[in-house]
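RESIDUES AND SHAPES:
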Amino acid sequence: MSLNQLIENCKNNDTKAQSELYKLFSSKLFSVCLKYSRNYAEAEDNLQDAFITIFKKINQYKNKGSFEGWLKRVTINTVLQQYRNEKVFDIINENTVDDVELEVDEDTLSIDYLLRIIQELPDRYRLVFNLYVLDGYSHKDIAAMLEINIGTSKSNLARARQILKQTIQDYKTTQSLQSL
């Protein structure tokens, strides 16, 4: 069955087609959820919520543009809605922080370690960091998505980079002390 036929069947609430769509895209969308979630279990919950939303809104997909891109946007928006509901962005008076360059040495840091320290960031910093750095959204887009102002987006990104830089420096110091 073609992807277009699968989508049409999902629009008609065909549970077999929905199951097939889930099997086809769940691993890719789970990695999106994992980026924006605090931990693995929350990512699993977010994936389920995302698919519920996808199946509710699949009639809005008009076969224009990438279906996978549409799925990713719906998934990100579903996860972000949870954080908007939790009011993680209530702190509005962020002091502007100078932007920090974050250099990652892939030889000494594993992807699992990087993902873990990103997940450990406070919600508002993690979400902005992921949207800006990993998914390429602009501060204007992030501000609209998270219902914050552009300055808060920039400040949260800078703070996320600061925290990650310090965490990585501490890790490297620990590693070099252990190798003595």
The domain at 111-178 is CATH 1.10.10.10 (Arc Repressor Mutant, subunit A). DSSP finds eight helices and no strands in the chain. Residues 150-178 form the longest helix (29 residues). Confidence is low (pLDDT under 50) at residues 91-96.
